[in-house]
Write a structure and sequence with these properties.
Phe_tRNA_ligase_alpha1_bac; BirA Bifunctional Protein, domain 2; single chain; binds phenylalanine; alpha+beta; three-stranded antiparallel sheet; cytoplasm; 2 domains; tRNA binding; ATP binding
Length: 350
Amino acid sequence: MNELDSLVESATQLFAQSATPADLENAKAQFLGKSGRVTELMKGMAQLSVEEKKSRGAAINVAKQAIEAALTARRQALADAELQVQLKAEALDVSLPGRQRGQGGLHPVSLTLERIQGIFGSMGFDVAEGPEIETDWFNFTALNTPEDHPARSMHDTFYVEGGAPGAPNLLRTHTSPVQVRHAVQHVKKHRALLDAGQPMPEIRVIVPGRTYRVDSDATHSPMFHQCEGLWIGENVSFKDLKVIFTAFCRTFFESDDLVLRFRPSFFPFTEPSAEIDIQFQSGPLAGRWLEVAGSGQVHPNVVRNMGLDPEKYIGFAFGMGPDRLTMLRYGVNDLRLFFDGDIRFLSQFQ
Ligand code: PHE
C-alpha cells in the first residue's frame, strides 16, 4: 500500500471513530484543514518538476477526493443515527385509542332540579329564585319564627356582615324565605285587582336553590339544595297538596307503585304541618318509609306578611330535598359524593 492509500485509510478510520459531528469536524481538520496532512502534501510539491507535479498532483487529488467522500459518508451516517434516536424518542403509538374531547354534562342534582321544574311546570307552577345571603327577616321573622324561637336552633347557619343591628344577614337555611319574597312581588303586581276587591290570580310557584346549615355527615352537607313549593289562592286546601305531591312523586320516580304518608309535624310557618314520607311497594327500597319533604298549610301570620288577608287567602307550602331525591332515584348512599367533584362519580349520570 502506498503512502496516499494509507493516508486515505487512516482518515477513513478516524472518521469512523468519530462518534459526534464535533469529533468528525476535528478529524476532518487533521486531513483537509489549513495545516492538515493533505494540504501539507500539496505544499511539499513546490520543488518538483512540472511533469512530476502533474502526476503527483493528480494522485494527491484522487486521495483528497477519497477522503472527502469518506467524510461525507460519515456525516450522513451520524445524521441518520441522530434522526433515529429522535424518532424513537418521539415515537407515536398510532394503535392507542384517541383522546377525545371530554363531553360535559349536567350534575345529577341539576338533573333532578330540571326534572322537578318540568313536572311542576306541567302542573302550572312558575319558578322563582331568591338570594342565598338572606336577611334575618325573610329567613326567620317573616316566617313566624321570631328571635329566640326554639326552631331557630335547628337552623344554625353561617352569619355574614351586614343586616340590621342584632339581626345580621345569613346564608339562608331554607328556600322558604322566597315564599314571602315572591308573594310580596305577586301581590304588588296585582295590587289594583286586590284594591278593587277582585280575585287575584293564584300564586303557584316552586323555588329551587342552594341552602346552608352547620351540618356535615354522610346525609348532611353544609351546603345542600331545597326546592320550595307554594300555592296560595282563595280555595286551596290540603287535599290539593296531597294530589299534586302524589302526582309529582309518581312522575319523578316513574312509578305508580308508590304511596304517600303525611306525618304530623311542626314548622313555625305552617299550621297544621306534616312531613311527607313516601313508600315504594316494589323494588330495592320497598317497604321503608322515606322522608322527602316538609309541608303544611301556610300560617296566617305568614299570609299576612305576604300582604294578603288570611281570612280570604289560604294555601300550602312544601319544601323538599333534591339531594335526597337524587340519592333515592339513583341509589346513592353518601350525599358527599355529589359535592366532591370526582369526575368518575359524576360522569356516571350522563
Ligand atoms: N323550610 C322547611 C325546612 O327547611 C321545610 C318546609 C317548607 C316545611 C315549607 C313546610 C313548608 O325544614
